[in-house]
Amino acid sequence: xxxxxxxxxxxxxxxxxxxxxxxxxxxxxxxxxxxxxxxxxxxxxxxxxxxxxxxxxxxxxxxxxxxxxxxxxxxxxxxxxxxxxxxxxxxxxxxxxxxxxxxxxxxxxxxxxxxxxxxxxxxxxxxxxxxxxxxxxxxxxxxxxxxxxxxxxxxxxxxxxxxxxxxxxxxxxxxxxxxxxxxxxxxxxxxxxxxxxxxxxxxxxxxxxxxxxxxxxxxxxxxxxxxxxxxxxxxxxxxxxxxxxxxxxxxxxxxxxxxxxxxxxxxxxxxxxxxxxxxxxxxxxxxxxxxxxxxx
Length: 296
What we know:
alpha+beta, six-stranded antiparallel beta sheet, three-stranded antiparallel beta sheet
């Protein structure tokens, strides 16, 4: 089958090395920017955008009237699109900042540990709960109205810290869809995931991976859950689904071919797991993504 992978727009932002961040506040009637990537981290707030579609990696979802998403990877494609949005007064605040604005030395400090953990999750895109958005909304508007000087940087730090302390943040893209972002801060987890990434298309089990890192099955399962929030089966399926969604986006292979190549033992099992995770079938996902993708 012919590979139909197309280039994604790499945005060159106006953020200079002399600035800590850039903020763009606008009221608009439609979303016009294509799916894109950029090296800067991005925090995007949207109000009155009910029915718009958010695409982050292989996550395709409709948004509510309040939306706040953080992207912290230079290679994670993302974009927002009109879809079913009929609002003529969409409010959007976009903050772009350097990935090293809070450098590694600062992020190692106890007071910033939660921010470091949030950035690690945001390498796959994270979206925040309505409760969290309502708590930081006034801070976002305050920063948009006064974004000059050192105090504005402190305001941004406060927003990021408050977000890192919030409950209900949710990762969007599958981890293996944006494989360059992998970072687990544990040699055992890194080794286990490297093995699963290399062998996801084979019939592997918990004991295979546990033996690899010198642990019992029970101990490794508990360790994996503590470090990643996922058990072994969920971790393996997430890797397989990441590869599957990438193939749905980038190739013309049939759904059945993709299922087998990604390690699922049959098509019905693949469809069931895919729909549970993505709330749509693989075929629907392919069509939804194509509708959103601008080829440049």
